[in-house]
Backbone:
């Protein structure tokens, strides 16, 4: 059994877009069986998740999130699923069940459920309505496209390359366009949805959200899932929404939500973008903000059956 573990660390809090030199991968002493408590075990992960929301955790702003559960005892599990980017670590034993392990961090995991909650639970789509999905080739967007088609919606999708446009069409999108080459966002949206948009599932925010507000139908619904265009923005470079008055004029409803407030597991096809090696984890994260990622990105740390 190896006596060292490899771990990805943040050595500089990023300002704006993260850089490779903000991270480092180093070795550290690995947990050993003799040091474990009675209810601990050693884990060697096969895959680690890599998602845009992780940029929001690289803020250096201290304790941003409330810790729920006053009165929990030492060893009680308060939350699970948030592990270090490390090749070996220890954790408290929890009951689990066999599943398709890669998809547990894709369609069956947080991205799949995020799409389901935003589209189905919050926006309550009706057959025949038009839904616009931004960043439709990403981890969440690709699920939303399929969910919408399964419920009889007309799907308009956007993506950042011609290959991605073809991919979302293969998932069932009725119309898809490349937002990087379409010119005017508002003109492209109106051309794709001339009668207007009933539901906007937004993963992008910024200028695209602003343009879409003008293209919504009265009583339209917006699921504000993410704002990847703004994650690396500073107070000086952040985009300021100009068309917010359309929320009043068109009687729109916008839902902001955190998926951990809900829980279920829909099973839909997703595309896994696999990066091999913990040493490539920082670049895998940076790629999410440079438009070079397809679907759900994961980091392969080890193979099944590989010894600890």
Residues:
């Amino acid at each position: 059994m190896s006596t060292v573990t490899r771990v990805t660390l943040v050595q500089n809090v990023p300002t704006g877009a993260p850089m490779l030199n903000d991270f480092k991968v180093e070795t550290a002493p690995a947990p050993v069986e003799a040091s474990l408590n009675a209810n601990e075990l050693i884990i060697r992960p096969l895959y680690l998740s890599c998602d845009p929301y992780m940029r929001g955790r690289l803020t250096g702003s201290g304790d941003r999130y409330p810790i729920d559960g006053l009165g929990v005892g030492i060893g009680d599990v308060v939350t699970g699923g948030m592990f270090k980017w490390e090749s070996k670590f220890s954790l408290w034993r929890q009951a689990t069940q066999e599943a398709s392990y890669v998809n547990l961090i894709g369609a069956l995991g947080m991205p799949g459920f995020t799409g389901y909650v935003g589209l189905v639970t919050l926006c309550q789509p009706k057959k025949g309505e038009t839904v616009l999905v931004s960043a439709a080739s990403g981890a969440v967007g690709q699920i939303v496209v399929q969910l919408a088609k399964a419920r009889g919606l007309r799907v308009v999708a956007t993506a950042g390359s011609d290959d991605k446009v073809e991919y979302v069409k293969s998932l069932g999108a009725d119309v898809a366009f490349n937002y990087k080459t379409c010119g005017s966002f508002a003109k492209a949206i109106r051309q794709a949805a001339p009668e207007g948009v009933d539901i906007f599932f937004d993963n992008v925010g910024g200028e695209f959200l602003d343009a879409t507000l003008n293209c919504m139908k009265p009583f339209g619904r917006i699921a504000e899932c993410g704002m990847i265009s703004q994650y690396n923005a500073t107070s000086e470079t952040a985009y300021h929404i100009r068309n917010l008055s359309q929320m009043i004029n068109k009687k729109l409803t916008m839902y902001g939500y955190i998926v951990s407030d809900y829980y279920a597991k829909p099973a839909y096809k997703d595309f896994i973008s696999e990066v091999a090696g913990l040493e490539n984890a920082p670049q895998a994260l940076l790629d999410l903000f440079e438009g070079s990622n397809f679907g759900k990105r994961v980091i392969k740390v080890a193979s099944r059956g590989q010894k600890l």
User: Anything to note?
Assistant: The mean pLDDT is 85. The first helix runs from residue 110 to 122. The domain at 4-63+74-103+271-300 is CATH 3.90.180.10 (Quinone Oxidoreductase; Chain A, domain 1). The chain has two domains: 4-63+74-103+271-300, 110-261.
